[in-house]
Amino acid sequence: MPKLSKPLPARPLPLPLRGLVRLRPAADIWHKAAFSAAVAMAVPDLVLLALGRLDLVLYTAAGALCALYGHDRPYAARARTVAWVVLATVAGVGAALTGAALLPSAPLLVLGASLLAAVHKVVCDATRIGPPGNVVLTFVTSSAFFVPQRIGEVPGHLGLVLAAGALAWLVCMAPALVRPYGPERIAAARALEAAAGLLRAEAADTAPARHATAAAVSAARRALGGDTTSRDALRRAVARADAALAAGPADPAEAERLLAHARVLRGGGALGARLRAHAHLAPAGVRVATGATLAGWASLALGSHHPYWAVVTAAAVIQANTTATWQRAVQRALGNLLGLLLFTAVLPLARSGEVALVFLTLLLQIGAEAFIARNYWLGSVCVTPMALLLGEFGGPHPAGALVADRWTDTLVGVALGLTVCALVTNRRAAGRVHEALGRARAARVAAEAAAAGPCSADEARATRDRLGAALLALREAVDVAAGEWWQAAWPRRRAAEEEREGYRALAALGAGARPAADDAVPPHGRGARRPLHAADGRI
């Protein structure tokens, strides 16, 4: 029996400062979420403005923010995703408003908000719902815990949340009427663009580019789903991107062809089982529940009138590991400080009239979505004044007290979120690497066997998909463990070697599968068969 190596002693990781405020390229579809949420908020805002009931905007805003979700998914999946988000929002706000009406104790309200924040964190991570993840749900429900409420008012207010959520669902689904395969086309274009980046990469920099290509190809295959004829050309485009994983030296000419193809495409009860399969997320839930509760209680002890701000901050800064939490904490503090300065500057204009208040809120919502993908701190510069201006719909508040509370709650949430993340260790991270290694090895062996013997196209595709998913899971497990403090020893070198061997097997299994460069792309409408060209205005 082989002798086990002695685990290395646990030691804290250095917390990096480099790159904290560096701007990344803007997200390619940021405008879809931004303007969808703006439209979903604008309609009820204008109706309430006409009725003279802007005090109800907090409830309609809760439902309207559901329009931020699902924009990276095909419309069938988007319909389900946004519907579940709306129902989760109504349920969370309902629990929060009931608590606000019945619970006389502020510490108990903080505890309730924190427990809901933990549920949001675990469920959103387990379901991989995508941006903006748990933060918006936590913001909405945590705020509702501290809205003055009578129990008889709860059904009516929940009706407003549901109505605004239904409008958000319609806004998210409306583009399907004119571009029914838009999300699939974007997913395929991302795969082609990632493959082009791989073909342009220098030999020393291929590992990140190879991982990005594998992730983009995997996401595109999930988006394409079923075997419908209208998606065959997109499937061939994804296969063309996948073939780049098998490519040898850099090929700038092929990279340019892939980018050109991508430009054409761009133009134009189960939950319980899912959560059990994601048991490694339990530490994140414990961290959020503990950190948010302590932050809210500390905020109350310091005399803040908005302890839910501390709850939201703690929930927002706690990330997959300690290093990522440290980075998010610094970004959150910097963004909120600059956001408070911006709030102070625009407050006189916001108080000049109700129309100006609505306009500024919508503008900041768009700005938040435009900038958040570039760096979290930059998006927070818009989120902070937007959150404060939402409170102005119920009536003006002393500006000095608002700014002081927000800054105090930010510092409290950041400090306690970091502290809890350091003290509540994630001992599952190293074990998860071992599990991911085993699955990746098994999938690689199956892929090597398929490459060596006779194998049908469908079997080869299924084997490649399994290996690709296993390699992505291994990379995710390694990234989490690499940034976690007080972690048991895990096989870094073996993980890197298995990843290299896995991509080698992936390339061998798919070698030679490169479709023609002039494959057609699917039509916009159902039943059409004409080819699309870049001159088509809808491309």
TrEMBL record:
<feature type="region of interest" description="Disordered">
    <location>
        <begin position="514"/>
        <end position="539"/>
    </location>
</feature>
<dbReference type="InterPro" id="IPR049453">
    <property type="entry name" value="Memb_transporter_dom"/>
</dbReference>
<dbReference type="GO" id="GO:0005886">
    <property type="term" value="C:plasma membrane"/>
</dbReference>
<feature type="transmembrane region" description="Helical">
    <location>
        <begin position="81"/>
        <end position="100"/>
    </location>
</feature>
<feature type="transmembrane region" description="Helical">
    <location>
        <begin position="333"/>
        <end position="350"/>
    </location>
</feature>
<keyword id="KW-1003">Cell membrane</keyword>
<protein>
    <submittedName>
        <fullName>FUSC family protein</fullName>
    </submittedName>
</protein>
<keyword id="KW-1133">Transmembrane helix</keyword>
<keyword id="KW-0472">Membrane</keyword>
<feature type="transmembrane region" description="Helical">
    <location>
        <begin position="158"/>
        <end position="178"/>
    </location>
</feature>
<keyword id="KW-0812">Transmembrane</keyword>
<dbReference type="Pfam" id="PF13515">
    <property type="entry name" value="FUSC_2"/>
</dbReference>
<feature type="transmembrane region" description="Helical">
    <location>
        <begin position="46"/>
        <end position="69"/>
    </location>
</feature>
<feature type="transmembrane region" description="Helical">
    <location>
        <begin position="356"/>
        <end position="377"/>
    </location>
</feature>
<feature type="domain" description="Integral membrane bound transporter">
    <location>
        <begin position="294"/>
        <end position="420"/>
    </location>
</feature>
<comment type="similarity">
    <text>Belongs to the YccS/YhfK family.</text>
</comment>
